[in-house]
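wait is this the right file?? whatever heres the structure
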């Protein structure tokens, strides 16, 4: 586990700020201690500073993961968030969208969100802003990118795409046959 370079830290913070805005600082300086980001084999992990200090006792080739995997860097140095980052993003999300029960299943199958499945949404969502998707019972289901702003959604037709799908909790089930 090694520290992220300045360039990779900047890329990571830009991606996180699309979803949680200025709350990125809240991820690092938490009431229960100091947290950090570390990289191992192109994947970025999030955990407490104490956890990473304890992990330093292992040889780098023996260490597979430590903390919560937020995502990974591609070969072109872009950062892709994975669904495991949802637990970290949901408490700090600024833009939220709640789905009707009938639309939840479609989203969990990997489809985009149409206006007809929209239960409610936060005010002042900009186009192409990162959003966290919730069920009507406030269970985080995944995240995506807003296809339309809040103002555009009011005048959109029912079949119009409101959110582009990025990741959802159904990925665990869909990828189960690949893992075993």
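ok assuming it is, sequence goes like this
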């Amino acid at each position: 586990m090694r520290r992220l370079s300045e360039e990779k830290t900047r890329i990571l913070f830009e991606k996180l700020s699309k979803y949680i805005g200025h709350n990125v600082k809240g991820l690092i300086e938490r009431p229960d201690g100091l947290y950090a980001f570390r990289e191992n084999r192109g994947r970025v992990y999030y955990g407490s500073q104490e956890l990473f200090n304890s992990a330093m006792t292992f040889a780098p080739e023996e260490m597979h993961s430590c903390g919560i995997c937020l995502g990974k860097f591609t070969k072109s140095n872009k950062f892709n968030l994975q669904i495991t980052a949802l637990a970290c993003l949901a408490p700090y999300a600024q833009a939220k969208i709640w789905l009707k029960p009938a639309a939840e299943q479609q989203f969990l199958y990997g489809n985009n969100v149409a206006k007809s499945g929209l239960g409610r949404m936060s005010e002042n969502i900009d186009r192409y802003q990162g959003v966290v998707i919730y069920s009507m019972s406030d269970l985080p289901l995944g995240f995506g990118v807003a296809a339309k702003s809040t103002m555009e959604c009011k005048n959109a037709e029912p079949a119009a795409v409101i959110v582009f799908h990025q990741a959802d909790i159904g990925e665990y089930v869909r990828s189960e046959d690949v893992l075993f």
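Helices lie at 6-20, 24-28, 49-55, 86-89, 101-108, 150-154, 171-174, 176-179. so i think its the right one actually
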